[in-house]
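Escalated from tier 1: flavin-adenine dinucleotide holo job.
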Amino acid sequence: MTPELLASLREVVGDAGLVTDPDQLAGYLTDWRGAYRGTASVVVRPSTAEEVAGVVTLCRDAGIALVPQGGNTGLCGGAVPDSSGQEVVLSLTRLRRIREVDPVNQTITVEAGVVLQQVQEAAAAVDRLFPLSLGAEASCTVGGNLSTNAGGTAVLRYGTMRDLTLGLEVVLPDGRVWNGLEKLRKDNTGYDLKHLFIGAEGTLGVVTAAVLKLYPALHGRATAWVALPSAQAAVDLLGVLRTLVGDRVTAFEAMSRQSVEVVLRHVAGARDPFASPHPWYALVELGDTLADAGLDGLLESALGEAFERELALDAVVASGSAQIAGLWSLREGISEAQNHEGPSLKHDVTVPVSSIAAFVAETDRALAAAVPGIRLVVYGHIGDGNLHYNLSKPVGADDEEFRVRADELARIVYDGTARFDGSISAEHGLGQSKREIVADYKDPVALQLMRGVKELLDPAGLMNPGKVLPS
Ligand code: FAD
Ligand code: 2HG
Ligand code: ZN
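Tier 2 regenerated the structure:
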């Protein structure tokens, strides 16, 4: 970067908005797991949408590529710059104002750098719920949630970030600001442009603010940990619950035994609720606006039916918030705990819920044949058909010998996903990790249209290059 451009950027964002010290830069140049590393000599940290527009305009004129970054918790390397040292990281974490909370319209208007947990807390303060919930919620940002179309544990009832968004404010690659901050649930005046930017992973523009939907707060909660004989039983249990308690099912997470084992081994204080191991588990949660909705009773009678139909092998209904937190930590701890077992080969996939069991049986078999002793850390939001089909090396195996087989094992998982009409990315995006392989699994016409949109909005290719679109 030239000293002139650096001086111009400083004029726009001030000293507090520029990071050039190598020690301070380091955290912006690698992802949460240390799986992706890049280089950059400058991180720019604007604090308003106008400053973002100023930075984008200066970099466009200089032909410098920008890599938008929020909380840097993404799992596909989308927020990490390349190794050229020429890209500038554009951190949005100083855009942190909650602009408006409107409990009557059930909306909240927030800037891109607001942390997800702060949105949840602002909603709770007016007796409303912002339902998006995920393990990284204490550090991921609204801008990152929008740009990855984040999912998490409440999608089966409330939908993904896309479903929770009414309006956006976006700085376009040419520096113009699109004010699409609508608070409307109905507006049929042509193309719904916000959907282009949701899930675009920063390749079409920089999200600076959003209007998000709120829901009535939930005051009743019942949580159970259920041991299951198979993935099929998990799907069948979900069916029983939906029939008996309908939309009160707010979470339905399923985990293979090997997923739970990594948590028991690596998370301090983690405890198996049952005396003996079982093949699969489900974490089930019901919610209701009424505190006295009798959810424990409803959950117990649904579980009674599950036992009668031999879907459940054992179950514990949590009593009190400490036990609820303990059960959730068994589930939320998997991602971090697996990092202690050597390379974690991640496959965030989705198939129709009705195909989950057959997909798991077929894929488990093929993986075990390819690598005897492979550990199948398979878990996820199966109410949405979304599994994290993550793999760890056999106990005692060499890290590198396992890592070099990553592409071959990914093919096994993705070919299976394709056979069951699924997708190779459910909720984490493509980033840099899946940008090439997506060409083998996505409709070619869809990819042509995506390239056309990119060309229209970002003809110079300066917005997060090397991400999402195949080269
Ligand atoms: P970043 O990682 O900073 O960026 C992600 C992408 O968005 C990048 O491509 C970046 O360029 C782009 N971007 C960021 N901000 C902007 C902006 N303002 N404008 C334009 N582009 C932008 N994800 C789920 O969906 N469900 C889960 O259950 C889930 N659980 C997780 C659990 C753990 C422990 C961890 C570490 C991650 C988990 N994630 C999950 C992944 C991650 O938290 C989400 O992808 C999250 O939405 C990323 O937000 P972020 O602010 O960290 O974005
Ligand atoms: C989860 O559901 C996250 O825990 C992370 O989406 C999954 O680390 C992963 O693969
Ligand atoms: Zn997930």
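Residues 220-335 form a domain with the Alpha-Beta Plaits fold (CATH 3.30.70.2190).
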